[in-house]
Amino acid sequence: MKRCVLVGYPLDHSLSPLMQSAAFKATGLSHKFEYRAWPLRSEKLSWLINAMKHGEIHGANVTMPHKSKILEHSLTLSHSAISVGCVNTLFLDDNQVVGCNTDLSGFIKAIEESGITIKGQRATVIGSGGAARAVLVGLARLGVQKVTVFNRSRTKAKELTKQMGNEYEARFCSHGLRNIMEKLGESMLLVNCTPIGMRGHAINQTPIPSTLLAEIPVVMDLVYNPIHTRLLREARDAGCRTISGERMLVYQGAASFEIWTGKKAPVEVMHKTVLGALKGADEE
Ligand code: NAP
What we know:
With 284 residues, the protein is an alpha/beta fold. It is 39% helix and 20% strand.
């Protein structure tokens, strides 16, 4: 049996075990692959690397708060991990543990699938953590013209946008989140990359006052639990198109599945599984 694990701490609300197990079942791989949650504190991350090196674990997803911390361990980094600066998927290649980032391709796929064209347009991103980094690289690769980043810690946003500006052609600027009322300029897409609005964190909150939403054609929330976050509900009421975070969740998971199994991921099965679990959570 090839064991895959999800490593993070805590792991209360993750849908990845359900989604990946459904994918193994749908592709007839349940007898060969299994996927389990492994709550692991950061000081124990070396256990994961050793278990992979010894063949006890075939692949892993790495989630909050370890996506950057894992870089302190001896890994070979893929191009995606180097670009984003953090890792969410591990696999073995020639006895080397390789770290890559499938949030990046997951975000790009979710945007492409929505049919919006970001090339030459302006975008606004809220947050400056690991997910925001993947989103900024994704936007740059999609040919965005300018990205304005708002973050609670202005210093972190400033560092991130400076680094992105050095690496990509697009223009990047940053502001403190508390200045969003005065500083929000014209933008065709807004992406929330903070946990604000997430179940168990700040479910009734939103990162941006609803009065600002009418000017933004498309609003995406990376938070996927609940599917209809307060941000997305208010955006819909303001007439915006909305993209829910579960699309990116499914695409990043599908990319990890393909890396571990070498087979095409059953994206629709994975999506249905995630939607079913989220609807169940909404009804609780
Ligand atoms: P992270 O690295 O911990 O970064 C969190 C970001 O949110 C930081 O910029 C932080 O600001 C900001 N933040 C946190 N709490 C806040 C609050 N109460 N008020 C204002 N800002 C706050 O986390 P991450 O990995 O980037 O993940 C961010 C969110 O994206 C999570 O909800 C995660 O579940 C979601 N996500 C979704 C997908 C998907 O596939 N849909 C993929 C990845 C992540 P400071 O810098 O000031 O601390």
